[in-house]
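Pasting two entries for a bug report.
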Amino acid sequence: MKTILLAAAVLLAMTGCGQTTDTKSGGLKVVAASSWEAGFAKAAGAADITVIVPPGVNHAPDYDPKPSDLAKVAEADVVLYAAFEGFAGKLKEAAGSKAKVIEVALDNSPDKVKAEVTRLAGEFGTAEAAKTWTAGFDTEYAALKQKLAGKSPVIVSQAFVVWAADMAGVQPAGVYGPQPPTAAQLAELAAKKPTLILDNSAMPAGETLSNVQAKRVVINNFPGDDHDLIGMYKANADTLLKALG
C-alpha cells in the first residue's frame, strides 16, 4: 500500500512540474522587432509580446530604435529579429544575458510559416499551442484559396509577396525585386500582359510600374496590432478579391 501511495505521489509531483513548465513557457516575455515577428510568436503560443517598430512605419528594417525600445529588449526573455533588419545588431547588443536571441525567417509562404511557427514553439515550450494554431491555419488558408479560386489572373509579383499569387491559385508570370525594376525588366513584365501586379507595401515600386498596363495590388506582409497572421492573410485575400472584381 505504501508503495502505491509513494508512486502516486511521485506521479502527481511530475505532473505538477510539467504544468508549471508549460505555464512558464507560455508566459515568456517576448520582444519582437516588428509585427511580422510578433505574428509568428503569437502563432507559436507566446502571449506576452512587445513590438519595437511602431505602427505606421512603412519600412520596418530602417527603423532606428530609441533608448526606451532598447530598455524593453533588456528585460526580455526572448528577442526575435530578422537578418534583413538594419537595427538587428542593436537588439542583439541590448538583450540581457538571460535572453534567447532568435533570428526568424520571415516568409509568408504557408509551408515556411508553419515550419517557423513550429520551430519557435520548440524554443518557447508551447508545442501544443502551435499545433492547434497550425491546424486552424490550414483550414482558414484552404478556405481563402477556395474563395479566390476560378479567377485565373495573370500575375506579376514583387519577390517578397509571391505567396499571395499562390493564395490566388496561380504561379506568377513574372517576378521583380527586391530592388525597383529596371527599364528592361519593366518591358519584360509588360510583355507578360498581366492582369494584376502584386506590389509590396514595405518596398513599393509605385510609379515605376505605371507603364505596365495592369491593376496594381498592394500586398502587406505585416499583421496588424493584434499580431494575427491569419488576419493578415484574410485582409490580403479581400484586397485581391476587390481587385479581381
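Entry 2 (this is the one that rendered wrong in the viewer):
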Amino acid sequence: MKRFYKKVEVRELEAGRFEVLLDDCPIKTPAKLLLTLPNAGLSQAIAVEWEVQEETINPSTMPLMRYTATALDRVATQRQAVIDEIAAFGASDLFCQRADSPQDLVTRQSAAWQPLLDWADEMFQAKLIVTTGIMPVDQPPDAVAALRAVVAGCDDMTLAGLHGITSITGSLIIGLAVLDGRLDAEDAWELSQLDETFQVEQWGEDEEATARRVNLRTAVLDAARFLALIN
C-alpha cells in the first residue's frame, strides 16, 4: 500500500484514552474498529511507526500497531481461545524440558532457568516439574491452573503482547517475568535461546540460522516493548 497521508498526530479523548490521526482521520484496525489507545506513550510510539513510513507502507515495520490491532480485533472477540493458547505453555514450558548431557549444558540450563521457576512458584504458587529427554512431563494441575488464572486476569492489550512473547520463546514463565519487570527483553531473548546458543558455540551457525535468530530476537524485543508501553 502506498503512503496516502502527510500528517500524523495524536489526539487525547475522554477518560484518558488516545487515538492516532492520519491527516485528521482516526486510524482504524483491519476489522474497521477505531484504534483507541490506553496511554500517551503507546499512542506516540504508534504515531512514530506511521510517520517513518516512506512511499510504501510496510506493516512488518509496525509491530506496535500490529499488537494493538490484534488486541482489538482478535483478543476482544476470542478472549478465551487466546487465554487457552497462552496458558497451554504452562503445561510444556521451555524451562521444564532439560538436557541430560553434556554437563556444561545441564549446568547452564539449571543456573539460568531454575531461578525463574522458583520465582514462579513463589509468585504464583505454581511449582512446575523439571524433566529430561524428549518426552514432556505432566505438570501438577494446580500449578497449571494457577498460571492460567494469572493469564486470565490480564486485559486484552496485555494478552496480545503476552501471547506474542510466550509463543516466540516457548515459555510462559519468560512472558510473565517480562510482564512483571523481572526480565528485560534482552535477558528474555538470551534465556529462550540458551540451547541454540550452546549449539552455535559447539558447531557454528549458517547464514540462514543466523537470519532466523535475528528475526526472532527482533520479535521478542517488539513484544516486550509493547508490554512495557501498556503497563
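Dev reply: Rendering is fixed now. As a check, the viewer should reflect this: The first strand starts at residue 8 and ends at 12.
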